[in-house]
Design goal:
The protein is of the alpha/beta class and about 500 residues long. It is built from 22 helices and 10 strands.
């Protein structure tokens, strides 16, 4: 993926895995490179300390060392106990889950049939190398006929690490791989053709449709409508992905608006004709000092979503990151602004599109926006979810994690299943409760809504006997070893 951070900003960050504490839930804001991570807050340091205390005491009782404990379901539960002690009771977690493996197993059994469709995933950045990748590659030969024939090579490393984090170390059922454009298509980090080679490989392993892929669109570049036709015919993408800011690496010559009749609409016409009618658009996540450092920042706003959705009712527009700006001031200041106004910049604008324009073909996706806010201030995260569900409906919000920047998506999945909007926010702002982990709202957001868009059976049981499921059972039976690492950037 691309990196928006400037050289000076990169000097103020460190790779997230170098700051790992072993916690299954990050205790710092992690950036995917598209926004500057906020420094670790005092509350996050307290969570880290609380978890260390819980882990030290409970691991001994279970006959494990601290790191081993933090890799278990008990360790995951302990992380949410620690967060509740610091932030308040946002997460549904029974203290027994942190010390009794059977308690966690019972909880997981209740959602075993829940489909989890992660509509925003990525391969890891170029400078990451998972230490155990050769062992995983050798293991993958057992169930991957392509690897048995071609062998384990460097070319396979990133994909294999991705498979481990997403499909073996989490309960993710289906995943969609995304990428970003570049002004020079030759500089695209992960090209559309690369994505669909990966899709073919993984789905051959699975024997089912487990991996989905975006075709990256480049409005304004020469011949881009014809390239849409080529990709539709040759690649048959599951959906399309565009960045209205253009190339996110640098000031782009090709920013565009979704409602631009000259630039965008000829492409929308080709997409409608192709029959592949889900269009995903990156919005929000502007970098720090964006009005000074990022000339195309206005294109990251969501004011063009409503007109485009109104003019193209037979297309579905999925707005990635729900249009959220990162925390450009302190997390507390951002939350304070919401408490005073009842609004979150750009997120509220997106949520109001349905009512303002009378459209039902706009969805919000949660990648990075959920991950960064739930570990920084769960109340802010709960408010964001409340705004989106109130405005767009629970049937128009999609689960996405932006993994593997944040490591295995399992911790995000656990956080969402456990999170509840506080009663005072429900009463004051008319937010509906999120409900239990296996309830209708969370089941819809975690997978049901995306399954409807992509034509998939909305139950995980449909994939319980495929190659990926078999590999996961073997992996767990031989001793699962989640890394508990994130691979993005943290503030130094």
């Amino acid at each position: 993926m691309s990196v928006w951070l400037t050289k000076r900003q990169l000097e103020q960050t460190r790779p997230a895995e170098t700051c790992a504490t072993g916690s299954p839930v990050p205790t710092r804001m992690v950036s995917n490179g598209e926004h500057m991570p906020w420094p670790q807050t005092a509350a996050q340091r307290r969570v880290e300390a609380e978890l260390a205390t819980l882990a030290e005491r409970t691991s001994r009782a279970l006959g494990l060392d601290r790191r081993q404990f933090l890799r278990t379901g008990c360790g995951m539960a302990a992380a949410f106990l620690a967060m509740n002690r610091v932030f308040g009771g946002f997460f549904d977690v029974d203290p027994a889950e942190a010390s009794e493996p059977a308690a966690g197993a019972e909880r997981r059994a209740r959602v075993a049939s829940q489909l989890v469709f992660d509509v925003q995933t990525h391969f890891v950045r170029d400078d990451f190398a998972w230490p155990g990748i050769l062992a995983l590659g050798e293991y993958a030969k057992q169930w991957n006929p392509v690897l048995r024939e071609e062998g384990v090579t460097m070319q396979r490393y990133r994909l294999q690490s991705y498979l481990k984090e997403v499909f073996l170390d989490s309960e993710t059922t289906l995943a969609l791989v995304s990428s970003a454009p570049a002004d020079d298509p030759a500089n695209t980090v992960l090209g559309s053709d690369d994505i669909f080679r990966a899709r073919a490989l993984v789905n051959a392993i699975a024997g089912t449709r487990r991996l989905f892929g975006h075709a990256v669109i480049r409005p304004g570049q020469d011949g881009w409508p014809d390239e849409l036709d080529r990709m539709a015919a040759e690649l048959r993408p599951d959906s399309w992905k565009g960045y209205t800011v253009g190339d996110p690496l640098s000031p782009s010559k090709y920013p565009w608006r979704m409602d631009d009749e000259r630039v965008a609409y000829p492409g929308w016409a080709r997409i409608r004709k192709s029959g592949i009618r889900v269009v995903c658009v990156h919005k929000g996540l502007v970098p720090p000092d964006y009005q000074r450092t990022f000339p195309n920042w206005e294109y990251a706003r969501v004011d063009d979503v409503g007109p485009a959705a109104r003019d193209w009712p037979d297309l579905t527009f999925v707005i990635y990151h729900a249009g959220l700006k990162p925390f450009l001031t302190s997390p507390e200041a951002s939350l304070d602004a919401f408490e005073k106004t009842g609004r979150i910049e750009w997120v509220s604008d997106l949520a109001e599109v349905r009512g303002r324009y009378g459209v039902t073909n706009v969805y919000a996706e949660l990648g990075t926006s959920f991950a960064s806010s739930v570990v920084t201030h769960p109340r802010h995260c709960a408010a964001m979810l409340g705004i989106l569900i109130r405005g767009l409906g629970a049937d128009r919000v999609l689960w996405g994690t932006d993994s593997v920047w944040y490591g295995s998506p399992q911790w995000q999945l656990e956080a969402f299943r456990r999170l509840e909007i506080p009663a005072d926010l429900q009463e004051r702002h008319g937010f509906a409760p999120l409900g239990p982990a296996g309830g209708s709202v969370k089941t819809a957001i975690l997978g049901g809504n995306a399954a409807r868009l992509y034509g998939i059976e909305p139950r995980a049981a449909a994939f319980a006997a495929d190659g990926i499921a078999s590999a996961r059972r073997s992996y767990q039976a031989t001793g699962a070893t989640p890394s508990n690492l994130a691979y993005g950037f943290v503030h130094a």
